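Issue 218. Parser rejects a valid record. Input:
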Amino acid sequence: MADKPAIRSTTGRGKLFQSILDTVGDTPTIRINNLAPDHVTIYVKAEFFNPASSVKDRLALNIIEEAERTGALSPGQTVIEASSGNTGIGLAMVCAQKGYPLVVIMPESFSVERRKLMRMLGAKVVLTPRAEKAYGAYRKAVELAEAKGWFLAHQFETKANADIHESTTGREIVNDFADARLDWFVTGFGTGGTLVGVARVLRRERPEIRIVLSEPANAQMIGSGIEQRRTPDGAPLVSHSAWEPHPIEGWAPDFIPLVLQEGIDSRFYDEVIPIAGAEGVKWARALAQKEGILTGISGGSTFGVARQIADRAPAGSVILCMLPDTGERYLSSPLFETIEDEMTAEERDLSRSTPSAQYAAGD
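Output the parser choked on:
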């Protein structure tokens, strides 16, 4: 008979935090126990342990603090950025703590709860038409910043983006696997900061690790080999011709960000594996129901690619994949569309199986 688990205990973190911003980073690497094939080991880096529940907390904090260090951001100046949600939420947290007004420009197509979270954190959210995609939101943010003298965060171009992943995310991975095998690192891309920052560290210190980049199957900008048309300062000039709408929120805007271009030019990945949005939804649900890990469609998609690698990997292989955010950010998205609000027939039968507290709704 297996030993019974001992009661768990905790001792605290051994320090007092001076603000919520000091809790960004140091996210846990967690083993997958029920969804990994027997011959390999899969770990996930759970970025929803960041204080605003996504990997974008890292870049949001560094963009603002780098601007403070260089004097690009003045006390009380309004910050503006185009975002699908997670960067906007991270910036809203940082700006709330530091006292900067924030305006986020977001396409109307992204989940309603993201808008509410940013507004809850004190930001203003300006929506742009679905048909104009992420590029339309980007152009609106640039236009407003220039017209009103606001600080544009430039998440898609700033060196502060990949730099923070080099100094935190990449270092955490190397330290977590300091005495352990790691064969594959898997990530998708939004801005490209995670890929580039982590790859700088892995290529330098763990060159044996294969790096896999993933993108939506119906929006294969990297896989197409078609270059992004840019302005002289590196900003996107037009939407990428290979892009189509996809349900993996936070992944693959309709242009290749300048931050990601470093990863392309430096071959910071060994292969690109596309995945369909429906597969991302499937694996996000599986992670919730089989591992107790609540992540979004982007996390499910990254994990789905990790499972593809696992199926062909040699015995004993170890795979790490990024889970960028929490599933709670997707309540109004396809991820939850089959999750009932009211009791199912089976749940109603359970209720009726004993006499007390009968709930009649749904009958």
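Fixed in the parser; the record now loads. The chain has two domains: 20-53+162-335, 56-152.
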